[in-house]
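Here comes an entry:

___
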Amino acid sequence: MLYRTLLVLLLTYSAACQKDLTTQKGSKGSDVVEAVLDRIRSRCIFRDDRLFMRRLAIVSSEDGNDPNYDKDTSGGIWKIPRSSFESTLISHKLASFKDNILQTFGIHWNAITYESLDIPLLSGLATHMMIENIGKDIKADSTEQADYWALHWKIGADVKEFTSKINALQKPRCSKPVDLVFAMDESGSVGSYNFERMKQFLSNLTEELAIGYNGFKVGAVKFNSRGTEVFQLDTYQTKSDIQASIVFNLKDEKFRLSITFEEQNVGS
């Protein structure tokens, strides 16, 4: 008999006012990093970083939790090199991105100083600006991202510094199989403003899962006045099929994320 864990991921709209830590000087932690990335990605200004930004925050400063970060916050959570940041101020090919940042975030990019990058949102934007200035698409594979990092970020560094931290982060903490169900709120109050944000979040999450009989099985439901099945736990066996179904079958996105766990014994 195989015992599986059932994990329900509930995504719904919340209008509750919360303090925006992404713009608070010195804010740090995984919640802050993910909030910055969600906020930037939802605007669809920059190219897809293929989770490089999330990994880079871990490698550079452990989301700001590295003890050394409190002693030196230069470059912010993503530890942007000063010379690379300054190049974003003078680069002509970034003109359209500067316009978009002004229109979307109300930030005059050329007025930003290197010392202000300890504000998480500015550090995140600076990282994206640096990526656009480099002008090369980022591969999804973490090993190739390590090469990219050593070539453009921490020049000359051993790629093992990157891969070892990422591998430690991704190392399974238990071998128990998990049934994961996405439960999406599609009621009228949710709206469609952040549609791409939800799809990107779910797609990125799926990309990180070990899909399979002994790993994760993924299903999805959507609800408003009543619930509707999108796909069952055994409908798809590959990440690409799950991601495709998310793109074509789910809608509405600005969400509050809550996770509830329930242990369920499933005989097989």
